[in-house]
Amino acid sequence: MSIFSKLYVERRSNKFSEEIVFVIYHTILFSVSLSSVLFFLNLNHKYSSRFVIINVIINALLAILTKYAFRKKIHAALIKGNFYDNVLLIGSTDAAINFIETVQKYYYYGYKCLGYIDDSDKLSANCHYFGGLDKLHNVLINNNIDEVFIALPTIENDKIQSCIDICDANRIKVRILPDLTDYTSSSIYINNIGMLPVVNIGHLPLDRTENRLLKRGFDIVFATLFFLIIGIWMFPLIAFLIKISSRGPVFFKQERWGHNNKRILCYKFRSMIKDSKDVDEEGNYNQAFKNDPRITTIGRLLRKTNLDELPQFWNVLIGNMSVVGPRPHPIPLNLASMQTVDNYMLRHLVIPGISGLAQVNGCRGETKTTEEMQRRINFDLYYIHRWTFWLDMQIIIQTVVNIIRGDQNAY
After folding, report:
1. Domain spans of the chain?
2. Considering the entire predicted model, what is its pTM?
3. CATH domain 85-178 topology
4. Which of 8, 71, 137, 219 lies deepest, with the highest CB count within 10 Å?
């Protein structure tokens, strides 16, 4: 069963939320298989449904706890400098810079970049320069390299193939780091015609009726359960705290762009003082920033824990938002970004969400530069073109983890 669910595939470089999703997937397959075996062997009278459900839940929880324990054990070893894979980077594209910054920031991925090679020393990131591409063979021989990551421009096919041939001759594992912007503008997948690899340009996953119905059905069930279990007591409590801490309404309504650029009213708990201005005298949108004086004391706590977003579950129920999707931006921010950020308007191809892939990957809060907004949009486009139900589950789990752990960009 674990072969089909890929339960024991090594995911050291993936988030723990993805591990939980695969445990849940394995649990569903196991439950169906166990129920089928009991039915066909006529053993239902010996094992009650209650016994089966409790057994499955306990096994799932034990699997999650065991994976978490192993993960923490590996992280502890990585902190001590053990278990690292030494990698060599080839190229100096934006993808190379992002790779270096990522492995340096997130040590638990288990990669240590020894340096890079390229025909010119122009990489702005802090990384040792080994020399030109002609040095690749010598670098592989004289250094303990476990993997090679190629981040050359995609048009330099000859150079890429030459590097792959040299790595293959030295029995070194090779991975390609494409520029994300090259692959988020369309939905692609690869298959073969004989021995010939073919890149297919496909429709968006959420263009399919069955996927839209699945996503909408989940949204309704999730939002309803939220109001019945959490909202019924948390909303009055938060409303009371807002009222006694500052003057003004409990809820804040803001017009934003939703699916197909249609305007929607986005609901939030008010976290700023009454009559705070969203736009300055020059017409620029005033994003919330660290230590923003407009934010109230209770509002700071609400924004830090994302509790100010909870009223958007009403948006989910009425259908103009989803639990997961690209975050809807205020209209002035849309107008400013659509002129400077590549493929910005493509994020409105799907219904916006309370949480999204960009947010769980640290792209939230104030965007000070065009590059920061571009990175956020790249994540949104990746989500749109590669949506699956299980990706939604992963984002929801990671959102809960981030709320508990805290997000440095939440203010």
Report:
1. 2-79, 85-178, 207-405
2. 0.69
3. Rossmann fold (3.40.50)
4. 219
